[in-house]
Amino acid sequence: LIQGATIDSYTISTDQAQAISYYKCAVTYAIDGKIYCAVSEAFSAIVFPSSINVPTITEQPQSKQYVKGTTAEKLSIEVQNDSDFTLSTEYQWYQNTQNSVEGGTKISGATKKSYLPNIKEAGETYYFCKIKSVLRGNIGGKGFQIYSEEVCSNIACVTVTEPPLPWEGNGTESSPYLLKTASDVEALRDKVNKEGFSFEDT
Description:
By secondary structure, this protein is mostly beta strands. The chain is built from one helix and 15 strands; from the N terminus they run βββββββββββββββα. It has one helix at 182-193; strands at residues 18-23, 26-31, 34-39, 43-47, 56-59, 64-67, 75-76, 78-80, 88-96, 105-106, 114-115, 123-139, 142-147, 151-152, 156-161. Strand 2 (26-31) and strand 3 form a beta hairpin. It is rod-shaped and about 110 Å long.
């Protein structure tokens, strides 16, 4: 029951956002001393906010260490949106040669909550993710989007070291690995089959 709403029209308040509310009107009238009541069909109304809060990061990407040629795990981030509205989250991963978000390079296509880092080269690479929430709606047949401010994750360092291989050489064209004995071949087999080692870039 809406206090004071006792005439044939009612203006919905837009002072506060509301995800969805339903309204109907009951009309009471008297005929020959008898009281009758008719109730309208219900209709819904949404009052969209003028802005939305930034998402809360509940799980940060973690630094990892790998040996070159092994299999990497995905960096990941988890977020939570505090809203009565249905919000989506947009992600963008960056990488940097320095432990800083300044000067980071946007990674093309890295727009999901997880990212598989490249560990083909030895060294340290720093990764971070920038995220923002978005509310999409429609008023009068026209779609719109409301974006939150952007928030940045912690920086995760991915360290890749050269493999401690038991053979002479470094796997390059000028200095290939030298397999001299049957045990060298067996070691190579174990590296590939048991440890998942890849020689793709050697």
